[in-house]
Amino acid sequence: MVKGQSEERGVKGTMVLDIVKTIHGFKDVPWDRHLSPQAMALVSKKILASTWYPEKPVKECFNAIYRVLGGGKPEAAREWGRVNGRRVFEDVYKNLIVPGDPMQSLKKLNIIANAFFKGWTYQFQELGTRSIQLKVLDSDRETEVIYYLIQGWIDVIIEITGGKNARVLIPQKHWEGNESTIIDIRWE
Fold first, then answer.
1. Is residue 3 in some structural domain?
2. How far from chain centre, in Å, is Cα 98?
3. Nearest Cα to Cα of residue 169 among 62, 74, 71, 88
4. Which residues pair with 172 in a beta bridge?
């Protein structure tokens, strides 16, 4: 565990709903071969948007979808993040988006992320008028797919706030042995 990182990590039902809907949408996939009994129990229960769910079975579901449906390709997870981000930022959390101001909207990404992922630690550094760096202190290698999803969210935030040509790169990855994950964000 990373210093400053909460022991109680969870995922908000708003995010879990999309995961469960995705799994239910592919009934021909033998999900019981890819998910633990705990994750299968999560998928079979009624999910409430306002409830926090334990991170472990949710991560299993994320990773199973990533491997089975996305072929383990980061771009597939990023695209899922774009689709999810559109719903999230144009509907559920539209009050956190500052029209015409990608920087101010991205600075609120920690609020948005904390609304979905409990127990994560984020640090932001503004690098220029159209550049920001997000550092996430994380030691759990099983969260890799979530970062690709976050890349998709960032793409959407920049687009809907008027930014162009977003470049969202992950030059440092905790799942490759680094102490944290760095996301470099630039736009025009």
1. no
2. 20
3. 74
4. 182
Domains in the chain, number: 1
Q: Domain range spanning residue 126? A: 10-186
At 131 the three-state DSSP class reads strand
- Residue pair 161/96 in contact (Cβ under 8 Å)? The answer is no
How far apart (Å, rounded) are the C-alpha atoms in residues 5 and 61? Answer: 22
- Which CATH number does the domain housing residue 112 bear? 3.90.1520.10
d(CA 67, CA 148): 13
Q: Which residues contact 111 (CB under 8 A, 6 or more apart)?
A: 96
List pLDDT tens digits, range 129-184. Answer: 999 999 998 888 899 999 999 999 999 999 999 999 999 999 999 999 999 999 99
Q: CA-to-CA distance for 97 and 77, rounded, in angstroms? A: 23
| pTM reported for the whole predicted model | 0.88
What is the C-alpha to C-alpha distance for residues 81 and 32, in angstroms, rounded to an integer? 24
